Amino acid sequence: MYLYIWYRGTFPRYRFDQLMKVGWKVLLPVGIGVLILTAVAGVLL
């Protein structure tokens, strides 16, 4: 029970629009960058 209360108090709950903003502005560019880096490494090595 302590861990549950600690987790809920430590990590805030994000609204759906905040999660979508993080997804589009952070996670998608990082994913595309990793994909391009992997493709370049595959061609060169």
Account of the 3D structure:
This protein has 2 helices and no strands. The longest helix is centred in the middle third of the chain and has 29 residues, at 16-44. The chain is mostly helical and 45 residues long. The mean pLDDT is 92. The protein has a domain at 16-45. The radius of gyration is 18 Å and the shape is elongated. The N and C termini lie far apart (51 Å).
In brief:
It contains two helices and no strands. With 45 residues, the chain is mainly alpha-helical. It starts with a helix and ends with a helix.
Overall geometry comes to elongated
Q: How many beta strands in the DSSP annotation? A: 0
Mean pLDDT score: 92
Assembly type: single chain
- Tally of contiguous helical segments: 2
Radius of gyration: 18 Å
End-to-end gap: 51 Å
Largest sheet: none
What fraction of the residues are assigned to beta strands by DSSP? Answer: under 5%
Order of helices and strands: HH
Into which percent range does the helicity of residues fall? over 70%
The poorly predicted ranges are: none
Structural class by SSE content: mainly alpha
Comma- or semicolon-separated keywords:
mainly alpha, elongated
